[in-house]
Design goal:
The chain has 292 residues and is an alpha/beta fold. The chain has a domain at 7-156 and 184-210 and 256-270: Rossmann fold (3-Layer(aba) Sandwich), CATH 3.40.50.720. The protein is built from ten helices and 13 strands. Strands 3-2-1-4-5-7-11 form a seven-stranded parallel sheet, with helices on both faces. A two-stranded parallel sheet has the order 6-13. Helix 3 links the parallel strand 4 (70-73) and strand 5 (99-105).
Length: 292
């Protein structure tokens, strides 16, 4: 009798989830996903996935849950809460899931004045969107599902990196003294998720970031050096023209530890700092006229 393939249901099958889904598809998994955009659904169906529209007020058909063994969500909560659980917690509960993953953000730690944080510390979200994320984490951990929370740092990878901005002329070197950001390559996110699927620990929280939080202006300067172009001039954060949303990203300053993904999941990062990550992306996005 043929073994039934495991099935991953991805709510909001986007940039990060797609890397994991492609890996699992190559291992014989079945992938079911959602996207609000019809064009995106067609694109992903061409990659071998079964896609459905989904948003608050538009439920999935019962057939979307048939055979589902694992679920991953990257949909940000709205003011009403986590829409996946609000709309489909009962259906997910009937699936007998082996694993559930919630892709959150390190923003729930709030501002720590540049100090280090890890998963054992209480969260202190300072921004409204981070407060919503914190509530969504709690919803998942209290859902009765085999939930795992992944707090992601700033994501970069093919098509989303300083090379793309340098080529487009939109790269900026905003300097706020003492400010650092943690980041993570999208391929390393997939590695962490694969490792968690192989070693489930329901209720666990994982920081997903690389080894070296760094000032954003240093990352742009290094990318420019690799490209062989002049970096943009530094701009003082206090006087730089930034949108209100962009300015909020500088309100929090923290360094995020990643020891748990290494010790518990056995993860070895392919890109432990932005230097390795950018070097690998140079051939993809770092050449003039390259497309991500």
């Amino acid at each position: 009798m043929a073994e039934i393939a495991p099935t991953l249901l991805c709510f909001g099958l986007g940039y990060s989830a797609d890397v994991l889904a492609q890996r699992l598809l190559g291992q014989g998994w079945r992938i079911v996903g959602t996207s609000r955009q019809a064009e995106k659904r067609r694109e992903l169906e061409a990659r071998g996935y079964t896609m459905h529209p989904f948003e608050r007020g538009t439920s999935l058909p019962d057939t979307a849950f048939a055979g589902v063994t694992h679920v991953l969500t990257s949909i940000a909560p709205d003011e009403a809460g986590d829409l996946v659980l609000d709309m489909h917690q009962a259906e997910l509960g009937r699936c007998g899931l082996a694993w559930a993953g919630y892709l959150g953000t390190t923003a729930v730690y709030g501002d720590r004045g540049g100090d280090w944080v890890d998963e054992t510390m209480p969260i202190e979200p300072s921004l409204p969107r981070a407060e919503r994320r914190a509530r969504a984490e709690a919803q998942w951990l209290e859902s009765g599902l085999p939930a795992h929370v992944f707090r992601l740092a700033g994501i970069y990878g093919p098509g989303r990196n300083p090379f793309v901005n340098l080529r487009a002329g939109t790269a900026r070197r905003i300097v706020k003294p003492g400010q650092v950001f943690s980041r993570i390559h999208v391929e390393d996110i997939a590695t962490v998720l694969e490792a968690s699927i192989a070693r489930p620990h329901p209720g666990q929280i994982y920081n997903v970031c690389d080894d070296e939080p760094a000032p954003p202006q240093d990352v742009v300067a290094h990318a420019a050096e690799l490209m062989g172009v002049e970096p943009p001039a530094e701009q003082d954060f206090a006087t730089a023209e930034l949108s209100p949303m962009a300015r909020t990203f500088y309100e929090d300053n923290r360094r995020v530890r990643n020891a748990r993904i290494k010790l518990e999941l056995g993860v070895r990062l392919a890109f432990p700092t932005y230097r390795e990550g950018l070097l690998a992306l140079l051939a993809v996005d770092g050449e003039p006229g390259a497309s991500g």
